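Hi R.,

Here's the chain you asked about this morning:
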Amino acid sequence: MSGHSKWASIKHKKGAIDAKRGKIFTKLIKELTVAARIGGGDPGGNPRLRAAILAAKAENMPKDNIERAIKKGTGELEGVNYEEVSYEAYGPGGVAVLINCLTDNKNRTVADLKHIFDRHGGNLGEPGSVSWIFVKKGLIVFDQDKADEEKIMEIALDAGAEDVRQSGSQFEVVMEPSDFESVKKAFDDAKIPYTLAEITMIPQNTVRLEGKKAEQVLNLMEALEDNDDINHVYANFDIPDEVIEAVR
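And here is the predicted structure, written out as tokens:
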């Protein structure tokens, strides 16, 4: 498995989400606010807000927090004006990294990013240097030991997914973003548990890493996720499961 889906799975396994719930809430509140500001406060007509609400509920964010963030986005409550900005970079081993930020101070954000990449053996790149590697897709991930491949494939293809593939110890179901909600609903209705379900950026090629480079990239990803201004991080690394277990 590569990049973002691999990193999300690592966080789930290691309990990092529970350990950093405060930071998770900060990022979710920003996304709720920006989604409401751009597309309005009605999730029925705003797919991005609908996805943000689902993500917030999945993290057990209180309903009041969700509603307050949405009202700040629509202007019903006073709030910070966050700006969306993306950066492109290279990590150890030539790994491509795409970073989406929600920030109220771009100068602070880019300074923080430069510091993080300098510290972890990478560097920021020019616009367009790595974004071409990634395509926007819906992604649902299942643990291999908790799911039946034939059943997953049957449900996925019937619901309109474009690909089902095995990656390490997991199955990945990939679909167009427009089909994400219907495919996810099909698995929810079938009561088949998944470890990750989101619209993400999937790399078209990957860089396989082991040893020191693998450890450096995992440390880089952790440092990026720890920054409050960073909303999403996507990378095209491919690290075998056994290597991850050895270095984490």
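One quick note: The mean pLDDT is 87.

Cheers,
M.
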